[in-house]
Amino acid sequence: MKYYKIAAKNVAMNVSSERLQKSAAKYEIERPENIDIVLDGYDEAARRNSMLVDGVSSETWEEILSGDDFYEQLLDFDATFLHSSAIVVEKKAYLISAGSQVGKTFHTRLWMQYLGTENVIILNDDKPAIAKEADGIWYAYGTPWSGASEFNENMKAPIGAICYLTRSDKNWIQAEKGPRILHDFVGQTIKPRDEERRIRLFTQFSDLITSVPSYRMGVNMDISAARMAYEVMTGRVRI
Fold first, then answer.
1. SS3 assignment, position 155
2. What's 91's DSSP letter?
3. Phi, psi (deg, nearest 5) at residue 135
């Protein structure tokens, strides 16, 4: 068992996956007095799942199962995650969320191209944790679970804006708050198994979209998409 500080929580984790161990190394700490989250016992389920699903290794299943368990337990602390590519620009986090294969990672790489790689930090390329802290500010946190990408950082940043991404021939962006964008964002996070945690989840996301600027955006593959997103999401251009 090793110990980690992830999303401001003390985590005890026992996993066999070398990839996850490597990703988690930057979060490792000495054994703390109190443990918030325990992650253990995935070997048998991972082996069984790898036998049932072709092309997905036991190691990958262990990463999936431990990540799901972490975020499920994280709900008990009024924190969760948003399936998104989260980047830090000018000390604020910008979360680009979308369904699989839409191109959220490609879009954030356009930000790096537009602003320069030295000016953009990839906080987490798939599942950044998010929580509202005691100061009333929503933060995004790096975690070791970052999907197929290995890009994540042990840091946090206040969320500057969040956006739900779609593909489009022409670039466009619009501000949104309400049931539609709430439904989209809730569709890109964990599906809690019990009612209490489901209520917590909806409460968190309802607060998030009223506290943080939220957008829906259609983009093409041109760098002009990054320029538009950057200018609007950072508040340089108002719409």
1. coil
2. T
3. -80, 0
Q: What is the token pair recorded at 215?
A: 């957008």
Residues 112 and 160 grouped into a single domain: yes
Q: Report residue 197 as tokens.
A: 């945690």
Residues 72 and 175 occupy one common structural domain:
no
How many domains would you assign to the chain?
Answer: 2
Residue 89 three-state SS = strand
Output the six-digit token pair for 169: 């021939």
Q: What is the pLDDT of residues 107-140, one digit of tens each?
A: 999 999 999 999 999 999 999 999 999 999 999 9
Distances (CA, A) of 67 to 6, 40, 109, 189, 226: 12, 11, 24, 12, 30
User: What is the number of other CB atoms lying within 10 angstroms of the CB of residue 37?
Assistant: 20
Which residues span the domain enclosing 68?
Answer: 2-77
DSSP class of residue 83?
S
Identify the H or E element spanning 126. Answer: none
> Which structure tokens are listed for 188?
């890109």
Q: Give the separation between CA 72 and CA 190, rounded to whole angstroms.
A: 7
Q: What is the DSSP string of 159-219?
A: EEEEEEEEE-SS-EEEE--SHHHHHHHHTTS---SSHHHHHHHHHHHHHHHHHS-EEEEEE
Q: Which amino acid is at 57?
A: S
pLDDT digits (tens, 9 = 90+) for 45-75: 999 999 999 889 999 999 999 999 999 999 9
